[in-house]
Design a protein that fits this description.
By secondary structure, this protein is mainly beta. Helices cover 5% and strands 45% of the residues. It is built from one helix and four strands. A hairpin with a 4-residue loop joins strand 1 (2-8) and strand 2. It starts with a strand and ends with a strand.
Length: 85
């Protein structure tokens, strides 16, 4: 999955809720992330909308994209992720 959120570098904290978009994984193409088309599930477009742009259009606010892989072995789920802004 991909998580997308807003991060404040001054407060060192995430602001607003993160959006999660599921992706498909194929072991043969392990470096390729495939997402369903919006018409298939209606969840893939990501849109950030705020009531006042002055609250979030600041040099210390960044959009963070985090790629997350979850592996389930038995009852235990382990997540590995990397992100960029």
């Amino acid at each position: 999955m991909v998580r997308v959120g807003l991060y404040d570098t001054v407060k060192r904290d995430f602001i607003v809720n993160a959006v999660q978009v599921n992706a498909l994984y194929n072991q043969q193409d392990e470096d390729i992330w495939k997402f369903n088309a919006w018409k298939d599930n209606g969840t893939n477009p990501v849109l950030f909308k705020t009531s006042n742009k002055d609250d979030y259009c600041k040099p210390n606010i960044f959009i963070i994209f985090e790629l997350v892989i979850g592996v389930k072995i038995g009852d235990k789920v382990t997540e590995m992720s990397c992100g960029w802004c």
